[in-house]
Amino acid sequence: MTDLFIGGEWGPAEAGATFTTLNPADGSVFEECAEAGAPDVDRAVAAARSALADPAWAGMTAAARARMLWRVADLVEEHADELAELETRDNGQPLAVAGGVTVPGAAEHFRYFAGWCTKIEGSVVPVSFPDTLHYTRREPVGVCALITPWNFPLMLAAWKLAPALACGNTVIIKPAEQTPLSTVMLVELMERAGFPPGVVNLLTGGPATGAALAEHSGVDKVSFTGSTEVGRKLVHASAGNLKRLTLELGGKTPSIIAADADIDAAVAGNVQGALFNSGQVCAAYARFYVDRRRADEFTEKMAAAAAALVLGPGLDPASQLGPLVSEEHLAKVDSHVRGARAEGAELVTGGRRAGGRLAEGFFYEPTVFAGVTDEMAIAREEVFGPVIPVLAYDDPDEIVERANDSAYGLAASVWTRDLSTAHRLAAKVRAGAVFINMIHVPDAATTWGGFKASGWGREMGPYAIDAYTEVKGVWTHLGGA
Questions:
Q1: Is 156 found in the same domain as 99?
Q2: Catalytic one among 282, 365, 382, 459?
């Protein structure tokens, strides 16, 4: 059983409540975890507020903070195999993804933001008042509640923890109840790295725990990655003390395949862009606009490539596609597929739960639809699963309007041999990130976040420093008292 971590101490929830996590590869119970209630939230917030004023943290030099974050990265790498296996068993992602992407990505984020600790600067600003010195300071926002999703639990915890701590905040991390275990281990490693008590706190639990953090008057900021529906609820919950919010929410990424695209390269890239982590990626390529002259060829090759992927447990080295995270989520994906067929989309491959030796797990066959139109729900709603809807277009001038006709704006993709086409579309598509002839690969050094209903604010790079600091202006009259 795993415990909560509050004020530097591990222990059960005050009420003794627990919940279980499942192995999505076979549906078996994997672990029992403490479920934080309102008293535990109060204790965590009090510990974080106390640590915020503790000289052991507030007076720590930027260089010392940097060494501590660097030490976390070293510990993550030292325990890479254990973390990767834990992520695979808890989340379902293939071990090659957990070990080759998730764990190295987490370590890289701690190293990147360790470098920022000594570079968080203010500025001297010329003002119009005579004999006046004006300068700015960047100061921590305060107590930050960091609420992470189930699709990449370890890496997304690092995305939030590393910049928040680099800026001198204290944190309460609340992982998704479906996949908390790699975050629990990460906090254990952070304890070993030497953070003072109360700087890093861990609460495991369900939606009620996250809502209690968002509503708490002692929390100064919420950073949340998850669905747009829950993001809207957090906006309302956080309004009491006007918390600072960073929200990375849903997506419905358009992938535009021009007539001149290298179709084989586009197929290879788009299969990965759509089906990476079984399509459980906020920026997953999710609606494919293909020039009608190439649509049949693209659809046929996409279906063949998707059907050829090996579906299986993440711990099996042969598996290329793992299970969905839960029975509930599988039912949601299947509902979208059945809805598309009812609306007249042509099912080319897949479209059902995997059977045979995989029947006890939450596996869903990679699914390709042809003949999809813009009005169909499969082209408009976030599926978050291994589903590829192909839409044809005739006029290149119409494609920007169609791609932008969505509530979401997290990412977009363009496939073309023409640089003019590539950069014209990149400029006109309303999305926080545009990937040209490549899959979606965020990096610690640059921006990540969405337009419209895909969220507020940006994470990663220098933009994360803005998200986790307040700017204070200091005015000094130089003409005497």
A1: yes
A2: 282
Tokens of 393: 């277009």
Q: Which of 87, 248, 365, 382 is an active site residue?
A: 248
Distance, CA of 464 to CA of 222 (rounded, Å)? 13
Residue 480 pLDDT > 90: no
Same domain, 463 and 416: no
Structural contact between residues 203 and 40, judged by C-beta atoms closer than 8 angstroms:
yes
> In the annotation, is 248 catalytic?
yes
Report the relative pairing of strands 221-225 and 143-147 from DSSP bridges: parallel
Indicate whether 274 and 240 sit together in one domain.
Answer: no
- State the pTM of this model: 0.97
Same domain for 101 and 185? yes
CA atoms within 13 A on the CB side of 102: 33
User: What's the token pair of residue 128?
Assistant: 């119009």
The one-letter amino acid at 128: S
First vs last C-alpha separation in the chain:
63
Q: Dump pLDDT digits (tens) for 195-248.
A: 999 999 999 999 999 999 999 999 999 999 999 999 999 999 999 999 999 999
CB atoms within 10 A of CB 446: 12
Residues 77-119: pLDDT tens digits? 999 999 999 999 999 999 999 999 999 999 999 999 999 999 9
φ/ψ bin of 438: left (φ > 0), alpha (ψ from -120 to 50), beta (otherwise): beta
Question: Which residue in 453, 179, 135, 191 sits closest to 322, CA to CA?
Answer: 179
Quick check: is 51 in a domain?
Answer: yes
Q: Which stretches of 276-358 are DSSP H helices?
A: 292-308, 327-342
